[in-house]
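so my prof wants the structure for this chain in the tokens format not the other one, which i didnt know existed until like an hour ago. anyway here's the sequence
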Amino acid sequence: MRLSHQAARLSTKAARLPFPAALLAGCTAALLLQPAPAATAVPLAPGGEHRDFPGGGRTVSLRLPAGHGLPPSTTGPFELLGIGWDGPAGALDGGSLRVRTRDAATGRWSDWHTLEADTDDGPDRAPHGATAPLWTGRSDGVAVEFRPGPAGPPPGLRLDLVDPGAGAPAPAATRTVPAAPAAEDGHQAPRPAIVTRAGWGADESLRDPGSEYTGPVREVFVHHTATATDYACSDAPRVIRGIYQYHVKTSGWRDIGYNFLVDRCGTVYEGRAGGVDQPVHGAHTLGFNTDSSGVAAIGTYVDATPPQPLLDGLAAIAAWKLGLTGRPADGRTRLTSSSDASRYPKGTVVDFDAVSGHRDAFNTECPGKALYARLPELRTAAARLRTP
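here's what i got, hopefully its the right format
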């Protein structure tokens, strides 16, 4: 969701989750496959912690020695990684973190990729620091290079490797909230079909129990996840599970940050728990998480043209969500910043389009220039879905 902090990155491979593709709340960078490093891979060092999830998912956390990284190491399979630490995001200031990973199918290593602190997404009071997550595709090796800043290495520096697994099984009846005409549910726009958390295989024991709510949703912020763009839509639940595990396990959030996600085929997915028709307090747009809903396009839309089904899905969920409280998707909304770390100082009242991009609230390129350029027509399309 933030491209201003990292170079654009994108790699593709048909019919399965490609290797590699960056995943963050809005930035991506190309990782080119390279020959394996000369150093001999070694088994994953002891001392790592792990948690297994229903459906074969797992997060492995490996402590990184102070001031040091990790030589090329053989690991169990993973598809997403990131680095967390005990302390604020600014603890990395002046330092650098780079990773490279090994493709499990080909045995080839990626170029080095720089990880940066994830400062634009998340709750307004993050519990500790973490980098943006990086989607790697199926991998079985990793190396980390770490150079601390003037303040030295942050405490508790650790590498987290996420395998999203097959997901928790769920009865078919609980996997989708069916579409409904506007007149049927009493709202001002039709409800699109929404794949529930059970439908994408969420392990509900992972998140904090209960849910937090804000006032009525008056604003929709559009993001992109910065994963690869030509994925098979059947793989979208794996990406969502990876983001979910990382947001909770590594970043320390109570749940996945987004309220909804939409894949390239236009399928809408429930994000943060609490009820799709409720004003669930998300962690998606620092400083403006209150009275808003965060909707993430699965993919990277810096240069890639957003598919029409994706745009249709974004318009449909925005129209319905805003229609719950009678807000026109082509209208305006005034919100107050709750964080000096946002684009606007705390207390500043900002006049937004009712459907805005993440970059409108934070100094980021998210949701990518190609998708951001389509927001005016997306607003128009969403407004047309509203019942007078």
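also thought this was worth mentioning. The chain has two domains: 33-163, 172-384.
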